[in-house]
């Protein structure tokens, strides 16, 4: 497919394939992703790196969905104010989701983009999968 | 496509200018950017520019609201003056508080996303197809697909949803009325005109509990009212003649109390054992296997923990990004300099573009919009008067007694939705999703050859 060329460094890479890391339901309905290393990434990424990323994501989601004093307090407070309190403040879950977004961006910049990969935030896929896009490794510059 | 070989500064806006032939079905480029709710594939209606979501058939929500408002109105107008004079001024106060709580809970239940799962993007669906072994002839409809997993050492079957093209997470069910998979699906309630699922179950529960209190309170007050009148030496008939509205209230409350109290009790039991109506009806975790330990794998084995988890647990965000913009029309609200990653080609699947950091930031900005919910009590439009389709409410109960109780016979639609659509609804996927045809499964199809651009109703990106 033709792509836009430019004289700049930035070249639009083509999407070679996409790998999907599915959910791990072994602990119930908690948001957790499988840490099994997909074979398509073997040439691009360390197994260790990948597992670390997914494990951190799982820990962050666990933090978001944790049942504890803080979440109960938030729930009760919300109930008492007829849930209008969420008009002014964001829920704990949303705060953690933002944290996850930042983490993914960070991982992309540091680890995945230099290898021609891109992590998609699972929230954009309905928390069903972690989508990893593999770009064609065609230019010299992308192997930074 | 050759005309795209221009030597120019790469600008994310340029991605949407690529004249993909597959996207010429409407003039997106010249229209204002559209939000994702406008292309949502399920059968839902949206108001307030996507802030409010209801099922397509609002069913008898207007009736529910009408009954509550009329009964309370009559109560405040006819019974309260007498009771205030003879008893205490707190009666209308308590009544008012309860009424407010009931209406707010009801509206919140009706207008909240119950936990709809967005449908799989075509790439995801293709990936899943690849992993499933199909013997694939073009006319053979594949058998229902299931996947077995272990949850807390118990075998649970995950079913494949042909409409949403994913394996449903545990406790998720597909509602045929709304045409969506809903997480922790309880039932589709025609009285509130929406599914009851993970995100609005607590509102639904507070609605039925407060409604129980309200009906009992009104019932008690009306009885007291009539009793006080008869004590002043009059007969009951005379007392009723003086206050005919009380009889109306009595009748409504009397019939409602049975069903509402029953429903409240039933749902209290469900919450205490961490079950959903759907699971209870299907007997998923009943010990019909005899010796085999097939208990509920989701229960925390403590009533208090179960209650807290269901009612006071963390409020998960809506996974369907109703107010986000469609990606190929998205206005880049953050500067392009944020992009350190290489931008991506639009090709035929621009709305399948993986998100760049720009979009992540954009999403964050957009998320502030989605928090400013219209206050549930005052919708900007008047949805209740807009879609009164009560003439065709297919699941309308014959009598007000029905409610959402599972004990009602002959009204399966009210109680639960068929969790797995084995019927002709599957044909709808051909109209919804021309790009991905189950009729001709070709698992070896490479992603590059997928025609993705002409599917406007998939691949929308959910927002936290």
From TrEMBL, chain A:
<dbReference type="GO" id="GO:0043001">
    <property type="term" value="P:Golgi to plasma membrane protein transport"/>
</dbReference>
<keyword id="KW-0564">Palmitate</keyword>
<feature type="domain" description="Golgin subfamily A member 7/ERF4">
    <location>
        <begin position="19"/>
        <end position="131"/>
    </location>
</feature>
<dbReference type="GO" id="GO:0000139">
    <property type="term" value="C:Golgi membrane"/>
</dbReference>
<comment type="similarity">
    <text>Belongs to the ERF4 family.</text>
</comment>
<dbReference type="GO" id="GO:0005795">
    <property type="term" value="C:Golgi stack"/>
</dbReference>
<keyword id="KW-0449">Lipoprotein</keyword>
<dbReference type="InterPro" id="IPR051371">
    <property type="entry name" value="Ras_palmitoyltransferase"/>
</dbReference>
<keyword id="KW-0472">Membrane</keyword>
<dbReference type="InterPro" id="IPR019383">
    <property type="entry name" value="Golgin_A_7/ERF4"/>
</dbReference>
<keyword id="KW-0333">Golgi apparatus</keyword>
<dbReference type="GO" id="GO:0002178">
    <property type="term" value="C:palmitoyltransferase complex"/>
</dbReference>
<dbReference type="GO" id="GO:0006612">
    <property type="term" value="P:protein targeting to membrane"/>
</dbReference>
<dbReference type="Pfam" id="PF10256">
    <property type="entry name" value="Erf4"/>
</dbReference>
<protein>
    <recommendedName>
        <fullName>Golgin subfamily A member 7</fullName>
    </recommendedName>
</protein>
<comment type="function">
    <text>May be involved in protein transport from Golgi to cell surface. The ZDHHC9-GOLGA7 complex is a palmitoyltransferase specific for HRAS and NRAS.</text>
</comment>
């Amino acid at each position: 497919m033709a792509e836009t060329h430019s004289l700049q460094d930035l070249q639009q890479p083509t999407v070679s394939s996409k790998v999907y890391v599915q959910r791990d339901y072994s602990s119930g309905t908690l948001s957790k992703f499988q840490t099994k290393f997909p074979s398509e990434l073997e040439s691009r990424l360390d197994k260790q790196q990948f597992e670390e990323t997914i494990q951190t994501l799982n820990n962050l989601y666990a933090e978001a969905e944790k049942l504890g004093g803080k979440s109960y307090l938030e729930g009760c407070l919300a109930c008492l104010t007829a849930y209008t309190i969420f008009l002014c403040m964001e829920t704990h879950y949303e705060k953690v989701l933002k944290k996850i977004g930042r983490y993914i961006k960070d991982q992309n910049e540091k680890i995945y983009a230099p290898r021609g990969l891109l992590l998609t935030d699972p929230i954009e896929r309905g928390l069903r999968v972690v989508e990893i896009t593999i770009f064609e490794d065609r230019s010299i510059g992308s192997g930074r | 496509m050759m005309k795209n070989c221009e030597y120019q500064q790469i600008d994310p806006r340029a991605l949407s200018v690529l004249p993909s032939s597959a996207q010429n079905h409407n003039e997106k480029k010249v229209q204002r950017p559209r939000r994702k709710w406008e292309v949502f594939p399920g059968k839902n209606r949206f108001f307030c520019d996507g802030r409010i979501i209801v099922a397509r058939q609002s069913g008898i929500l207007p009736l529910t609201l009408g009954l509550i408002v009329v009964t309370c109105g009559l109560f405040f107008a006819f019974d309260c003056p007498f009771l205030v004079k003879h008893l205490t001024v707190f009666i209308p106060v308590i009544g008012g508080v309860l009424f407010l709580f009931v209406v707010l809970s009801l509206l919140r239940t009706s207008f909240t996303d119950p936990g709809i799962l967005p449908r799989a993007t075509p790439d995801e669906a293709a990936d899943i197809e690849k992993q499933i072994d199909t013997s694939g002839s073009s006319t053979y409809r594949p058998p229902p697909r299931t996947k077995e997993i272990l949850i807390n050492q118990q075998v649970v079957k995950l079913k494949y949803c042909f409409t949403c093209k994913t394996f449903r997470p545990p406790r998720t069910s597909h509602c045929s009325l709304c045409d969506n998979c809903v997480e922790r699906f309880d039932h589709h309630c025609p009285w509130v005109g929406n599914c009851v699922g993970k995100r609005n179950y607590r509102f639904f529960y507070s609605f039925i509990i407060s409604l129980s209190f309200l009906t009992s309170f009104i019932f008690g007050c009306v009885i007291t009212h009539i009793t006080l009148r008869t004590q002043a030496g009059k007969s009951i008939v005379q007392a009723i003649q003086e206050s005919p509205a009380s009889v109306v209230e009595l009748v409504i409350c009397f019939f409602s109390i049975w069903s509402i109290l029953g429903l409240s009790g039933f749902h209290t039991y469900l919450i205490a054992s961490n079950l959903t109506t759907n699971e209870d009806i299907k007997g998923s975790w009943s010990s019909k296997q005899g010796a085999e330990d097939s208990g509920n794998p989701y229960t925390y084995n403590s009533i208090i923990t179960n209650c807290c988890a269901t009612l006071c647990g963390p409020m998960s965000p809506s996974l369907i990004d109703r107010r986000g913009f469609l990606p190929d029309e998205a206005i880049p609200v953050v500067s392009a300099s944020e992009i350190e990653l290489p931008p991506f080609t639009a090709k035929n699947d621009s709305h399948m573009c993986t998100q760049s950091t720009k979009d992540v930031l954009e999403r964050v900005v957009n998320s502030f919009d989605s928090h400013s919910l219209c206050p549930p009590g005052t919708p900007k439009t008047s949805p209740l008067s807009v879609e009164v389709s009560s003439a065709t409410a297919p699941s309308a109960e014959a009598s007000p007694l029905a409610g959402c109780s599972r004990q009602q016979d002959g009204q399966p639609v009210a109680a639960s939705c068929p969790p797995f659509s084995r019927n002709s609804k599957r044909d709808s996927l051909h109209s919804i999703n021309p790009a991905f045809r189950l009729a001709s499964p070709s698992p070896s199809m490479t992603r590059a050859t997928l025609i993705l651009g002409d599917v406007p109703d998939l691949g929308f990106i959910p927002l936290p």
